[in-house]
UniProtKB/TrEMBL annotation:
Coiled coil stretches, renumbered: none
Species of origin: Haemophilus seminalis
Enzyme class: transferase
Record's keyword terms, sorted: Transferase
Protein name: Acetolactate synthase 2 small subunit
NCBIfam families: PRK11152.1
Record keyword Transferase present: yes
UniProt xrefs under SUPFAM superfamilies: ACT-like
């Protein structure tokens, strides 16, 4: 199983974290660590995930979410 680290910048809205976690789970990724920092009207998320799938699959799906501003 591969381990990947992601950094996201998202809008600060109540449902955003739930959507991100749902996308990760539905795409076959397990979130192992998460750090969240509020910066004014945005949130910076640092997430570590594990999966046998490629990271590109998750990044492409997260980038489609309307409140996700950046995925690294």
């Amino acid at each position: 199983m591969n381990e990947y680290k992601l950094e996201l910048v998202v809008r600060h809205r109540p449902e955003v974290l739930e959507r991100i976690l749902r996308v990760a789970r539905h795409r076959g990724f397990t979130v192992t660590t998460m750090d969240m920092t509020l910066i004014e009207s945005q949130v910076r998320l640092k997430i570590t995930v594990k999966s046998d799938r490629t990271l590109e699959l998750l990044v492409n799906q997260l980038a489609k979410l309307p409140d996700v501003l950046m995925v690294n």
